[in-house]
Structure formats: structure tokens, C-alpha cells
Amino acid sequence: MKQLTVDLGERSYPIYIGEGIISGLAATLANHKIGTKSPILVVTDENVAKFYLAQVKDSLEAGGYRVATAVVAPGEKSKSLAVLEDMITVALEAGLDRSSAVIAIGGGVVGDLAGFVAASYMRGIRFVQIPTTILAHDSSVGGKVAVNHRLAKNVIGAFHQPEFVLYDTATLKTLPEREIRAGLSELVKEGFIWDREFVEWFDANTDKLLALDSEALAHALYIGCGVKATVVSQDEREGGLRAILNLGHTIGHALEAVSGYDELLHGEAIAIGMVGAAMLSEKLGNPGSIAVETERILRKLGLPVRIPSHLDTDAIMSALMHDKKFKEGTMVFIIPTAIGEVEINSNVSSVWVREIVERLKGEA
Amino acid sequence: MKQLTVDLGERSYPIYIGEGIISGLAATLANHKIGTKSPILVVTDENVAKFYLAQVKDSLEAGGYRVATAVVAPGEKSKSLAVLEDMITVALEAGLDRSSAVIAIGGGVVGDLAGFVAASYMRGIRFVQIPTTILAHDSSVGGKVAVNHRLAKNVIGAFHQPEFVLYDTATLKTLPEREIRAGLSELVKEGFIWDREFVEWFDANTDKLLALDSEALAHALYIGCGVKATVVSQDEREGGLRAILNLGHTIGHALEAVSGYDELLHGEAIAIGMVGAAMLSEKLGNPGSIAVETERILRKLGLPVRIPSHLDTDAIMSALMHDKKFKEGTMVFIIPTAIGEVEINSNVSSVWVREIVERLKGEA
After folding, report:
1. Which residues participate in NAD(+) binding (chains A, B) (predicted)?
2. Rounded mean pLDDT, A235-256
3. How much is the pLDDT for A327?
4. Searching chain A, which residue's CA lies closest to the CA of residue B98?
5. pLDDT at res. B327
């Protein structure tokens, strides 16, 4: 088992990564002083519940825990205040108190929702994350939890750090191939912003990763979570540096919004966004090789690198202007300045952005 | 103008108390580095809006601020996730960003609701409180913000400290007399838990307070907020000491729940609860004079000191057992051990509590 620490002072917590470690959950809770006196709420979605809910519930009960469960529909629609209210109902009816904990088993949706339940129930109880997707490595580091509003994603939330994260690589083997590729997109992004060596390792180990080799996955998650943990440790509340984690997300979010959140997976949208950011980098005077290399590696992972041609450029530009990262009207992009290095550039011309959007809609 | 500081390290903030100081709001915002670039959301209720909303909006706009307003219905029903969602809609449509602030003008309901809007919008933006009731002195110190769930009050919320609190004693003069008395109940409670001298001053100045004498009110709010600030500073996240602020609240909350939240004002319910706690104190071996003195002063303030006889004892006991302060099944009461001193007693027998509830239902 690998272990790394997200260093946030008194809110520091460990991430455990290994194959089959979910079976030791009850013991890990006990190690983290989450006792058996107060009930625990396990939140998951229908897809994940099929594989793991009975097993987790049984092993927790065998460890002496009283367990309430809440199973939500898969997908972004469950990140709503209405579902949050349902979760609070379950928590109240099960008698959760301030010594209780909420355990999220699932991808980013479940983590974000259950995390906000934990953040807001009785003004904050303890939280444990068990990510079951590669993409969720991202939401499992940093404490950002939220639900959506019909006008904007993730706009109602909190910063609420977990007690620990338990990443069982065995749970990743039930993922559909398209989700695996999309998850790897967010993972290789940690390399593009911070760690050239990790990008090179990714390039050399693409086949193993796509085949879900346990050792390769554990290494990739360890390094990827480590990059994110390093960045978050330096900027817990998103004052500045943390923005670099959004490489590819500015265009990516706009594509998700314009395509209605059901055409592109998040990881696919940001793959296209990373290529766009690399193209903007060239316009800003950096070497063209950054865009070439970014695109080559993302293609190798089987990810889309062009905007679906039916998406309207004006609609994309309009969505871009509403992105909350355009603070006070200024246009900010995370720009790669080399493979493994980025800068926060707040002077990117919207004319250039439109040009790149058009170029991304061209032939692949 | 009086000023005191709630000392919470980097989350410390001042409380300004004085007559007419609301007219200086724009300047005070500027002093606290809340700039004019990002829009501000002012939240209030229909009753308060009539008196102050136009004035505040005009003076903020004169100071260069863009102001969005949200006016909610008065009363606890506005502390709901549905109203929270409406507030977030207003905030998004007005273009509030991470540099924006939410200003609450009103009583505890408005403060709790607007505070949770500020705590959760984009995972937390700045918050300013302008309490317009005496009771709201309580919710304006300590950062506890929340909305209700149909099964429990204040169960969905956060700890979110304001940038500053501005207490304009002139705004208290439009309060109905019954609310004045109920507000003074929570204020004299700060004396009962911590400051005998303040109780004596209260006893000597009842007439001035009930006549809303500005100087007397400013003094009482200054001392009352000061007691609460001292307690909160030592226990921001409610680990232990902060529980003493709940003197009278255990029985008080049960009475509010059983009477359907519309018969007794909060301050009235806790007045009865303080007498009950003092009676329990005598059963625990403390002098009977504590209950006599507590009851005398609360009567002098025109507050109820007996449980309405139509409320059912079993229902009250059942509500008491569900109070979240009964952590892990143990019965905890805040017990006065002298006038101006309390202890957290976790071994109060429910048989005694039932006896006291019955006694409180007797002749006044």
C-alpha cells in the first residue's frame, strides 16, 4: 500500500492507495478515531452500489458500526439541493450526530454531494472518501465539495477536508473504457502543470494504464494525487496558485456547458481544452512543440483533441465569458510554458481565444 | 460609537455599536476592503425592508457599490433550502463573484439565512451583519449560520464568520414590545452564564432597557456581545465551553418544537428554560436562591416563567430526548451554580427533568 499526505496543517489527511484495501475500511476508520457509538452514513450511486455497497456495509457492521445508506442516481443531476435535502433526511432519521461520519463511495458526483452533506450537516461532521474512478482522484484532494444550481455548476458548496481518502485500485476495474480514458486525461494534466517526468512516464506506460495494470494505476494515482496535494497545500482556499489545476478547464467547462453536459465526459472536454491552452501558448510566443506534444500524448490515450464541429462558436465564446474564472471581467487562462510547467496569464485576448476555438473545430 | 473585537485569530472581526451608524455603511465596507468592483447582495425581510432597505441601498449606491437585493418573508419558514436556492439565483443573476459580499439586515432569521448564502456561494464569500433586533446580538457573534430541515432546526449550515457586525441601536426602536422583552431575555442570559455584575446592572436598568434608551441598549449589547465573544473565542467550533451559551435552551428548544414555533418567541421559551435550569440546579444541591433570583429578574422584564399548561409533558420530554445536545444518549444540561456562573452537567436524570417540567406547568 502506498500512502501520501495532503499537508494542510491541522486539516492534513492521508491518501491510502492499494489493491483490495477497501476490505480494511472498518479498521482504518477506527485508526482515525471514528468510533462505533454514532451511526455512519454511506453515500453511493446505483452503479457503484451494485458492486460494493453490500460488501462495505457488511464489513462495517462486522466492525461494530451502525450504518445508514443512501443510494443516489448516477450523474450530475444528483448534485442538487433537493438530493442534499434527502441525504439530510436520511442522516436525521438514522440519528447521525456530531460524532458521526459520512463515507462517499463513488466518483466525483458522489464525493462532491456526500462531502457537502458532511460539510453542512450540523454545521460539519467528519468525511471519508473512497473514490472508485480515476477522475475522482481530482475531487478527492483539496476538500472542494458542492452541489449545482440550475444556472451554474458547483456554485453551492464548501471547503471540507476528509479524514482520509482510501483509493482501492481494484474498484477501478469495473469502469467503462471511455471513463478510464477520461480519468487518465485529468491525471496526465497533473503532469502537464507540474511534472515533466510524470508526463514522460505516462507516455511510456499508456498501454499498461489503459489495461488497468494495478501497479501502474497505483503509481499514476500516487504521483497525480501528490501533485495536486502539493498545489493545494500551498493554496487551500483558492487564493491564486490553485488556479493552475484548471489547465484545460476554461475551454473544457464551456464545451461541457454548450454541449449540455451529456455529449462530452469531463475528462474529454478538458483534453480538448488542454490542446486549446497549448495552442494559445504558441500565440503568446512559446514553442509550438508544446501543443504538438500535448496533442500527441492525449491522442495516444484515445482522447478527443478537437471540438465537435456542430457546437456553435458564439455559444462557446459566450459560455467562456461567463466562466467564473474570468474574475472581474479580466480574461485569465492557464497557459503551458513547457511540458510540465504552466503560468497564470491574465491578459489573454478574447480575439485569440475565438481564433483557437475555430481552429479546434477544424479537421482533427 | 463602541467597538469590541471577536477574537478568532485570522477570522477575528469587530462589532460596531452606536446610534445612527448604519448611515456610514459604505465607508465601513471600504475600510474593510470590500471594494466596489464586484456587486453586493443585501438580504433582508419584508418588515425590515420597509424601514431600511431604500436607505441602505441609496447610501451604498452613493458610495459606488452595485447592489442586488433579496427580500424574504419574515419568520423561520424563510430559513429553508428552497429560499437559499432563490438567494443563489439572485446572486448569480446579479453577477456576484468571489470578491463580492453578502450583507444581512435583520434579525436572526435573516442573519442565519444570508450567512449560509455567503458561506456556500462559490464555497464562501464575505459576509456582513447588520442586526436589527436585540435577539440577533446572539446570532451575530460566533459565525453559526444555517437553514432548517423539516425534521430539525439549524441542521444544515456552516461556521462562517462575518467581516464585521454593525449594530445601529436606532434600528431597534421599531421593534414590537414583545420582541424587545424576548430579546432582552437572551441578553440577560449572557449575564447569568458569565457576569454577575451584568445581571445586577440589568436588574437596576430594566426600565431604561424596556424604554429603549439608546445608551442603556448600547451598553447592554456591548457587554452581552462581549460575553458571547469571550466564550466563542475559546471554542469557535463548539467543542465544549461554547455549550454554556445554551443555558435555558434545552428546555426552551423543546417548548418551541412542541408548541409549533408560533406560540412562544425564542426569548420567551428560553426564559422558561432558564428558570427550569435554575430549578434543576437546586435539585443538584445548589442554593434555591438562584431559581428565585432568576425568576424575579425575568418576571421584571415581563417574560413568561411558566410552561403554557396545554403543552403535553410527554411531548416535551420526547422533544428533549431528541435535542442534539444529548450527545450519544447522555443527558446534558447547562446548570447555574450561582448568579453569573454555570457548569456543563452531563449527569442530569431525566426523572428530575420530568419533575421540573411538571412543576413549570403549575401556577405561575
Report:
1. 108-112, 132-133, 144, 153, 171-174
2. 90
3. 46
4. A327
5. 46
**In sequence order, what are the beta bridge partners of B4?**
B15
Domain B178-360 is found in CATH 1.20.1090.10: yes
Answer yes or no: are the C-beta atoms of B171 and B51 closer than 8 Å.
yes
Out of A93, A237, A328, the one facing B97 most closely (by C-beta) is A328
Distance CA B39, CA B66 (A): 5
B126 in contact with chain A, both atoms CB, cutoff 8 A: no
pLDDT-based confidence at residue A120 (cuts at 50, 70, 90): very high
Cα-only R_g, chain A = 20
In this complex, the residue of A82, A84, A124 whose CB is nearest that of residue B158 is A124
CB contact under 8 A, A155 and B92: yes
The residue extents of the domains of chain A are 2-174, 177-360
- The minimum CA-CA distance between A95 and chain B, rounded to whole Å, is 9
Instruction: Give the three-class secondary structure for A55.
Output: helix
| Grid cell listed for A181 | 480514458
Catalytic entry in A238, A282, A343, A355: A238
Q: Is A122 on the interface with B (CB under 8 A)?
A: yes
CATH fold of B2-174 reads: Rossmann fold (3.40.50)
Q: Which fold has domain A177-360?
A: Dehydroquinate synthase-like, alpha domain (1.20.1090)
Please give the torsion angle defined by the CA atoms of residues B263, B342, B244 and B226, in that order, rounded to the nearest 10 degrees: 100
**Partner-chain contact A151 B92, CB within 8 Å:** yes
Q: Answer whether A101's CB lies under 8 Å from A129's CB.
A: no
B82 pLDDT higher than 50: yes
CB B305 within 8 A of CB B298: yes
Q: What is the pLDDT of residues B114-131, one digit of tens each?
A: 999 999 999 999 999 999
Three-class DSSP category at B88: helix
State the Cα torsion A281-A287-A291-A294 to the nearest 10°: -110
